[in-house]
Write a structure and sequence with these properties.
Helix 4 runs antiparallel to helix 5 and helix 6 packs across helix 9. The two termini are 27 Å apart. The chain folds into two domains: 266 residues, no CATH class; 44 residues, no CATH class. By secondary structure, it is mainly α.
Length: 337
């Protein structure tokens, strides 16, 4: 896991390019002020905290009395480090599955809990991003709208279709993937494919068992609204930072700009959406091309964008790393599921 720390400096490259392009110095970022910066960090930590609370709620709904709420929340927050250091913000689910499995929870149930968590997260983010995409479209920002809507609709639809179809059919390893594994892996390859198919069968059985129950519908609904709240905190973090440089933006517009940037950052181009998220905000607010490094700096202070990125990415990445190592990857004592 430590190798992921090496990719963090790589994410600084787009920010350095922006700083050089628009002549932004350290003093410009510091001009934001300590109070707005700390408040933006707090908003981001509230976002992560709500994700942790949601994960705790889902886990303890299916595993009554399992583990401490504080530890489960910390593990979920720590798992975000993996998302911060991968393209498309994926990977946190593997950490929570690993943690639950090490605590004695069967793999199928661990995966089901993780899926319920990630699906509600994706659905909330996707819907907010789609609204932002529609607004961009109506504003005439066709390139921005195409990227935001294309990304958000594709990712959200894929997750939702797979989630609801899992209760109606059994998924297995696709032949196009299984064939080379069986060919080159031989006996070991066959063993891996069989284990994976068995694991997927168990997950689909869990879906058939739980998805249509009132309990799971309640869990899904509550989790979805917690996700909406968490993404809202993420969205207003930019409004707080922007206020520090005298750029006025309302809470709704801030949430829409950040969610548009989040959708653009989901493109598997850079680690943690570095560069894409920054230009995504400018693109949404100024109707610009999100991939044009000649974007005008007349209407939006770039130091606010960089300050926002530091507050919502680089500070949390340190906190999530500490929680990941301290809780999720530490020696774990198994508990009965």
């Amino acid at each position: 896991m430590k190798w992921r720390l090496a990719v963090v400096p790589v994410t600084l490259i787009p920010i350095l390019i922006i700083a050089v392009q628009f002549d932004i110095g350290v003093e410009d970022v510091l001009a934001i002020g300590l109070v707005p910066f700390v408040a933006a960090v707090a908003a981001m930590m509230a976002k992560l905290g709500l994700q942790g609370i949601k994960f705790t709620y889902i886990t303890r709904s299916y595993l009554s009395g399992f583990d401490s709420a504080l530890k489960l929340t910390g593990v979920r927050i720590g798992s975000e480090f993996v998302k911060f250091t991968t393209p498309m913000f994926v990977g946190a689910e593997f950490i929570v599955i690993y943690y639950l499995h090490k605590k004695g929870v069967p793999p199928s149930k661990s995966t089901w809990i993780a899926i319920m968590d990630i699906v509600t997260e994706v659905l909330a983010a996707g819907l907010l991003s789609m609204v932002a995409g529609v607004i961009a479209l109506l504003s005439g920002a066709y390139v921005v709208a195409a990227v935001v809507l294309g990304t958000s609709i594709t990712i959200t639809s894929l997750w939702m279709v797979m989630f609801f179809l899992s209760s109606k059919r059994t998924f297995q390893v696709p032949r196009i993937l299984a064939a080379p594994v069986l060919r080159f892996g031989r006996e070991k390859g066959e063993k891996y494919v069989e284990k994976t198919n068995m694991w997927m069968l168990e997950i689909c059985n869990m879906s058939r068992e739980h998805l249509r129950t009132r309990e799971s519908q309640r869990i899904f609904t509550v989790s979805f609204f917690l996700s909406l709240a968490s993404w809202t905190f993420y969205g207003i973090s930019f409004m707080i930072i922007a206020a520090g440089v005298g750029y006025t933006i309302g809470a709704f517009d801030s949430v829409m700009a950040v969610m548009a940037a989040n959708a653009i950052g989901n493109l598997p181009i850079t680690v943690g959406g570095s560069g894409l998220a920054e230009f995504g905000i400018v693109a949404f607010l100024n109707n610009l091309n999100p991939f044009d490094f000649n974007a005008s700096d007349k209407t939006l202070e770039w130091d606010a964008v960089i300050g926002w990125r530091i507050a919502t990415y680089y500070v949390p990445i340190v906190i999530t790393w500490l929680l990941l190592v301290k809780l999720a990857l530490s020696k774990i004592k198994k508990e009965p599921a």
